[in-house]
Structure formats: structure tokens, C-alpha cells
Amino acid sequence: MRIAISTGGGDAPGLNAVIRAVVLSAVHRGWECIGIRRGFGGLLGEGELMPLGPNEVRGITHVGGTILGTSNRGNPLKWRVQRPDGSWEERDRTQELLDSFRANRLDALVAIGGDGTLSIAQHLWEKGLPVVGVPKTIDNDVGGTITTFGFDTAVSTATDAIDKLHSTAESHERVMVVEVMGRYAGFIALSSGIAGSADVILIPEIPFDIDKVCDKIRRREAEGRHFSMVVVAEGALPKGGTVSLIDPAHQRLGGIAEKVAHSIEQMTGKETRVLVLGHLQRGGGPTTFDRMLALRFGAAAVRLLAEGQFGMMVALQPPNIVAVPLAEALATPRRVRLDSDSVATARDLGISFGD
Ligand code: F6P
Questions:
Q1: How far is the CA of 315 from the centre of ligand 1 (A)?
Q2: Distance 46 CA to ligand 1 centre (A)
Q3: pLDDT at residue 77 in the model
Q4: Whose CA is nearest to atom 10 of ligand 1?
Q5: What is the distance between the alpha carbons of residues 119 and 289, in angstroms, rounded to a whole number?
């Protein structure tokens, strides 16, 4: 067996741990491993192929990012090509990719990525390429698994930031509005907000009413709590409104914290500051939980390849790592359930969702 490994989409802490587990598990079976550089680009002339053995994956379990590089712009089904007049067109380069895969004598692919990469993997599987998926994303929005690796690290970074902001918010008697990532899911905001003792958490799953947000801040003021911490998911939206986009062409979310802060300042008269945590949440080494999950996912992916279970994704369904059909995982993206224990806990603690 000669297997390929690719990392696609936005990076997440734990990618290198998966790569290490896949390579070592494959080498122990006497297989060869090839890393595809820059997402799928390495098979389309955008990057080289990289032989991976024990030496290449030594000492990388705790290291953030991905030694293979990644891209969230290189979808082979919708490859953007610039025309001579400067405009862009999208081309389907699937066949080219399949040809390149065969020309490089690759037998199977381990595709590590979020919903975008896993959809591409599913498409390649439908075209006959033996593939196993590994779910990655700080957003935790992939179906079929109770969590993805990268999420725990991102939450821990966000919680740390909220903890630090508390002292300055209290000293200056200000409202701090912290924007966290998560795309259309509110998991990072919910977990870091609860763990970091936020007063208000705004998530995409619960459209907010700014009056209710300000009521909470005014109530605190009346109780002698002259500062407030508001955690906003980048995909949060007001009731009857739309999400805030900074790059509509690529559906890049952002800017909601600035809008919320502006309204809070106008409506309550409280001095308000904004912090957008951004890519800090994707940086750094993985937590112990994410390392373990990533290593377990990587080893399990190789076991699936050995059993010939293609078109599947490894998933955490405690206490086990199981195989879920890629199509099934992709059919239902994960979102915060309004009847979940975490939402109930936040409400019981007096945290407002602005609803
Ligand atoms: O999916 C991971 C993620 O970090 C999202 O939370 C965020 O919306 C997006 O990627 C940011 O992407 P980019 O790296 O293109 O800014």
C-alpha cells in the first residue's frame, strides 16, 4: 500500500498529531506514505508530494499548524482560474486530480479536514478514489462525531483571553465585547463564554435582541456590577437580521462584535471595547485532549484503510472511535442544540443569550 495524506481547509491544532499517527500506523504495516502539500493543490501542480516516514513526523505531536501546509481556497471541483481580462472562472479539475493520483501510484487517501474538505473527499470517493476522512475544525460543526480535534484548544485559548479581559474590564468599568470564531455554529462562544463567566453569549443558533442584551448590562449596573463581558460568535445575528460578512464572495464572517459594541455604547452609555480573537484561536499547540483525539483519529483511519472501509470518516462516539459514512456525517452539520445541557447551564447561571 502506498497511501496519501492531505490536510485541507483552515488549519487547526492537532493536524500534525493526526499526520504522525497515520504515518507511524501505516509504516508499522509496511506501507508507504506520501504527503500532499497545500491541500489538494499538491496533486494539481500547486505543490510537491512529500514522502513521509518516521523521521519526518518525529516530535510534531505537540506542534500547531500542519507540516503539509493547507488551503481553504483550493477546491478541485471549483478551481478558481483568472482569465486574461482579470475576471475569474471556476473549473472542475476532479479528473486531473484522479489522473495525478493514479500517475503517482497512490492506493488510498486520508483526507483530514472540515466539511469543505470532507465534501471533496466524498466526491472523490464517488468517482472511485479509496478515501477515509478525518474530521478537523476548531468550529466543531462536523456531523457524526461528538467533537472534532482543534475545538478544545480553541476554546481554551478563548477562555484564557476572556479571563484576562475581566480584570481590565472591571478596572475601567467597561463593557468588553469579544468576537470568537465558529462560522455558523456557536460552540466556541458557548463553551468559552460559560467557562470564562461571560454575562452575555450571542450565538448563531439563538438570534439576539439588542434591547435584551442592554437590559442585562443595565441590570448588572443596578446591582453594582459596573462592567460586563459579552462573548459574540462571529456567526451571531440579530432577530430578523442577517450575519455580518467581511468578504461576501468567500462567505468570510466578521464584524458583528463591532456592531454589537456600537449599539451597547449608544443604548447604555457604557464605554465599550471590542476584541476580535481571530486566528489566535487556530494557533499554537493542541491541548492534551486534542492531541489524544488527533492521535486516535489518525490510527483509526489507518485501521479503516486496512479493513478496506472506504468512503468513511472516523468519529468520536464515546468511548469509541467509530466509522461513519462520509455522506451521513455531511448530511447533518452540527449546531448548538437549544435543548442541550450547556444552554440550560448558561441560563441557570444567569447568562443572557439576548433572547
Ligand atoms: O473553519 C475555521 C475558521 O477558523 C472559522 O472559524 C472562520 O470563520 C474561518 O475559518 C476563517 O477562515 P480564514 O482562515 O480564511 O480567515
A1: 22
A2: 22
A3: 92
A4: 10
A5: 26
Q: Chain centroid to CA 8: how far? A: 11
In three state form, how does the secondary structure of 250-272 look? HCEECCHHHHHHHHHHHHHCCCE
The SS3 of residue 213 is helix
Contact at 8 Å (CB) between 129 and 120? no
Average pLDDT estimate for 170-181: 98
Residues 263, 267, 273, 276: what is their CA dihedral angle, to the nearest 10 degrees? -30
C-alpha cell at 192: 468559552
Our measurement of the distance from residue 324's CA atom to the centroid of its chain's CA atoms, rounded to an integer in Å, reads 19
52-70 pLDDT per residue, tens: 999 999 999 999 999 999 9
What lines the ligand 1 site, CB under 6 Å? Answer: 10, 72, 114, 137-139, 181-183, 234, 253, 282
Q: Which pLDDT score is estimated for 45?
A: 83
Across the range 66-86, mean pLDDT stands at 91
Mean pLDDT of 246-251: 89
pLDDT at residue number 217: 98
Are 142 and 114 within 8 A, CB to CB?
Answer: yes
